Amino acid sequence: MDCMDASAAGPGAATELFSAALVSSYVDDARFVPRRWLVDRIQTALGGDDVRFVLLTGEPGSGKTAVMAHLARLCPAYLRYFIRRDSMRPLEGGDARTFLFAAGHQLAHLHPALFEPGRIEVVVTQRVERLSPGARMVGMEVVDLLASPFYVTALNVTQHSATVEGDLVGISAARATLEPRLLELSNLQYLALLDPAEVLLRADPGARIVILVDGLDEIRYGPRGENVLPWLAGGPEIPPNVRFVLASRPDADLLDAFRRARAPQLRELTIDPEEPRDRGRIRQDISRFVAGFAAEPAVAGALVVAGGTPAGFAAAATERAHGNFQYAVALARGIDQAIAADPRSADVAALLRVEGIPRGLSELYGFVLARVKEAADQAPVNLAADPLTEPRERPAWDALFRPVLAVLAVAFEPPSAEMIARYARVPTGALSRAMEGLGQFLDRLPDSRLRLYHATLPEYLTGRDTASEGPFHVDAAAWHALLAGRLLRAYQDWLGCADRYALSRTPAHLVEALRRRRDPAGAAELPGP
Amino acid sequence: VLTDFAFLEQKTAVVGVDHLIADFGAALKAVPADHQRLWQVLRVLDREAHNLRNWERAESPAFFAQQLYNATAALGPASLAEEAERRLQARLPASAALGPQVRGSTAGEPLSRARRHTGRPREGFR
């Protein structure tokens, strides 16, 4: 199916509504590798008459989001919804209502005509000379009014009477839902998507509404209930002109109910480096990425110094990545940082020879973090362990780097550097050293906030891959509690608080600390009861 | 923190009442189901959300305290009502009459009237 079938329109100026920054962070990256074969495969699957859902699954780091971002860029008329745990907007996430609001607003932006049926403007004019005692005149009686958040609803009642001795009522409503947030899901789905789709079907039977939903697996971190996956599984029949492209990790517990419910309308695609049909293509994609990286002047120069060749490095790195794109990205960023420190170092040479670098993304994270820790601990940092003790020299990893990583790993939104310093309790002066040392793991957003570069890294830090007593482990329950405690102590009078993060997220940190202590998986991470 | 009047007011003013209500939804899943005080505060916020949604503190600094005072007087919890009253006293100039402020109307009636008129929500409108 050609994406331009749906509409020639695009997001235009509505960049935030259409996740333009996120899409750009992938496809405008100089190292981005388009995976046209995957895009084509998705488009072909979407073209089936009986298809309503295309589910793309792949292991963490396989490149699902990059493909979805590419599809979003290639097809500006596709609606898109990228579920993120670190959403900057507190109410955005994996819940079905937020999804439907986003889809409805995007659809209204692209196809305003679908939301402008003339029938929603009601005008009533009444004239009466005299309304006698006991008489009642009602301009409009409404049983159940749902004001759509996607278009203007106008009820206009004009009443004229010289004498009123009875009851004169303009509008009598048994029930009116005027506030969008109070709309029930069962109504919202029609206002946002199903009714406009029906209008489009009548107006242009060949047109399609395609909706990209990335990060479905992220909803496992959110509250159960009205999230988008149960809605997709158990919601109403999807009109024939609507298609969903869903991307998720292969989480059977999460996806199986959806698979069963939508089996006749579902096409499944995987990014699986073990699949014989795709093994070569996936390897080729990663090879293109690594070869492009090796051809960059700084890397090419370092390769010459190290006595290596771009082809040799590309072959070795591709083999190590074993089909995992994030592995190649993480390796490249580690090399970037080493070259920035000293392009002629033995360290850079060893990395470019891919010597001793383990297979597996978690293992690579452990390897790279160990190198950062080793470098950090070569120079201690002069810090007080708590406000009541004198500053003293302490190992930089534990005193500086680890708290910074921990804050980034458990933060619900990307924090600024100043927030990291406050929440991690590290002096602002020392923070720049940690930022530099951890630079390869950080993405700096356009507003200068920072986040860890891929969801797999905070998962590695807080998960079972890092031993609970190991130097890289972040005890998520403890850090959520710690952050909540620090915020509560910092703002003993909340009326003076201008820290939007503290206001937005302190309750969430408390809840998460509680939840993880109750959850056996979370409790297992804790050192004590 | 979700029963701290200052937090409730500040979050409503800076972030919005819907985000505050969402906090309660998450918190009530994490605490025992019979957490009476949280439920009471949530009921008050739910009832007043339509009034508080577009509240501009710079224009009406006492509005939040007034609305919560009106609602808690009928629904409780008493401690929040007392805190709202204290806040209301502090926010209003000494010369101003304490009275119910309903969006779209002007203040006027004395506080004692507000206590009698806050029990019944406007039916059909949330």
Question: By helix and strand content of chain B, what is the structural category?
Answer: mainly alpha
In percent, how much strand structure appears in the residues of chain B? under 5%
Shape type of chain B: globular
List unreliable stretches of 5+ residues of chain A: 4-8, 521-529
Number of strands of chain B: 0
Uncertain regions of chain B: pLDDT < 50 for 5+ in a row? Answer: 100-126
| Structural class computed from helices and strand pairing of chain A | alpha/beta
Helix content of chain B: 55-70%
Tally of DSSP helical segments of chain A: 20
The gross shape of chain A turns out to be: globular
Estimate percent helicity of chain A: 40-55%
Largest sheet of chain A: 5 strands, parallel
List the helices and strands and how they pair.
The complex is a heterodimer of chains A (529) and B (126).
Chain A: H1 20-27, H2 36-46, E1 53-58, H3 64-74, E2 79-82, H4 96-110, E3 121-131, E4 136-142, E5 145-146, E6 154-164, E7 167-173, E8 176-177, H5 185-203, E9 209-214, H6 228-234, E10 242-248, H7 252-262, E11 266-271, H8 276-295, H9 297-306, H10 310-321, H11 325-341, H12 346-352, H13 361-376, E12 381-383, E13 392-394, H14 396-410, H15 417-424, H16 428-437, E14 442-444, E15 450-452, H17 456-462, H18 476-490, H19 500-518, H20 520-525
Helix pairs in contact in A: 1-3, 4-5, 6-7, 8-10, 8-11, 9-12, 10-11, 11-12, 11-13, 14-15, 14-17, 14-18, 18-19
Chain B: H1 5-14, H2 17-30, H3 36-52, H4 63-75, H5 78-91, H6 111-116
Helix pairs in contact in B: 1-2, 2-3, 3-4, 4-5
